[in-house]
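Thread title: Can someone regenerate the structure for this chain?

I was given the following input by a collaborator and told the matching structure tokens would be attached. They weren't. Posting the sequence so someone can regenerate them.
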Amino acid sequence: MPKLEILVRTPARPRPDSPRLLLVHGICVGAWVWEEHFMPYLADAGFEVHALSLRGHGGSEGRERLNEWRLADYTEDLRQAAAGLADRPLVVIGHSLGAAVLQDWLRTGGNRGGNGGGKLAGAALLASVPPWGLAYSAWRMLLSAPDLFQQLLRLDGKSAAGLDPAIMRRNLFSDDLPDATYARFMARVHGESRHVGVELQGWRPFAPAPWQAPPMFVLGGGADRFIAANAVRGTAAYYGVLPTLVPRLAHALMLEPRWEDAAQPLCDWLLRLGERRG
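Best answer:
Regenerated them for you:
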């Protein structure tokens, strides 16, 4: 089992009896994507925040074998990270690929003591791979953003050096993203497992049955070219909740100029979740 990186941010003023939060990132990045905005924001709200780098990502081991990893391997990483936080209630928050990993973890026992014995208080899906996979979204992307589709076909576990930075910027972020923010982002991205990319199309089930799910929160961006608004609505309908759609928000929402427009409704849901638990 590769050694996993987990970043931690503790609150200066902890919220009494609040659940711990565990953040899971999307493709080609690591736990570092949460560090600049979301981790301090949620810690300032009184939550203890943990961010996991899946194997082969960020500071976790396994980069040299990235093309070998499958979705089940990433799910095992989440299982291990959650087991280490089992002494208190937990909320897991996944973005994009990380939200698919979260759904697969729920399907395989994450909501039935599968986090090592601790109680799972809730789960949040941000710009999530839909429960039925990405096949429909991929066809839509081929028609509406063929340049982006071609870039994603080039992804493998070696590196992201072959990607066109202008195309990726136009499709990952809003137009008003500062140049310095994008330069920092591109300096740290890397490749992704081809196996996982295929699995995310939906050829094998990875979502739990709706009745297996804990309290759920579903959010997406109105300007997201990867996960369109209709996919966000469909994901929310699958889990029986109302979606939160943030106008002018693109896919890499935690680094967007309007990142707080996503963090605030998430935080509001976490606070309401705590009130219901209390």
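The beta strands are 5-9, 20-24, 49-53, 90-95, 120-126, 216-221, 244-246.
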